[in-house]
Amino acid sequence: MSKIKKDKQGSKKKRRIPLPVKFLLIVLSVLVVFSSSTIGVNYYINKNFTTTFYQINSDKVTDNIRIVELSDLHNSQFGEKNSKLISKIKSLKPDLIFYAGDMINEDESDYSVLFDLSDNLSKIAPIYACYGNHELDRYLFKDKKFTEKLEAHNVNLLSNEATDVTVKSSVIQLIAISDNVKQFDIKTNNAKKFINSLKPTSNCRICLTHYPELFNEKLLNKGIDIAFTGHVHGGHIRLPYIGGLYSNGEGFLPNFTEGVVKTKDNTKVVVSRGLGNHNPIPRINNQPELVVVDICWY
Description:
By secondary structure, the protein is α/β, with parallel strands linked by helices. It is 25% helix and 25% strand.
């Protein structure tokens, strides 16, 4: 039987941990603590939304117009039946409310979150919407009555079409594009044909589309003054001093992830980070966002 060596006081000798191992353990401990706190903070901010305000000046309106944009809700809820979201929008007193797509999930047949929200928001201001990829896939492949059902809840859904909207003493031309970059030029779709058929207008032309990457090329020089978009979820992971990391439409380090992006033809593209998620890539450092745009005549 082996004997345990003891020092003069009779105590067991302690094994010394090598310095590199100590350093590694300290680093791992710090990473564990940091990761745990980051996950906790990230979970909290993803359960709450922030409100972002932008001001865009235009000499094509004669009154100030406030538009609230919701995008990429993906059936998320903030408060019971979205009570927090509804209360906030009511306090903002918008003239118009825009849905920039992906308010539902295409693999879910329960639309009650969107329908209840629309019933309440339509009492505040008129709602206009475009298809996101989730709504369009739901309509094309799973529920041909989806559009009819949504419009029954006071939502004006536009798809590759235009309408004049009167707000106070101003008239805006609102257009909506349903197709993404890959679908845009397909002859069986109507986006390219529709946008090329538009005649010049002296009114403020506002485009509602889910896909901001269309403004890299497809929707340039089309007389669009302001666009409202979503889709990119803020780039999913937002890095300090860099911004959004990835979008499905543009890949890594995309041009469009949030804010008001001014294009080569001077279109102001409003990009919402969205309110929810339906993606294996988590939202990190990327709080859900309600967007408010004041279009000012002065």
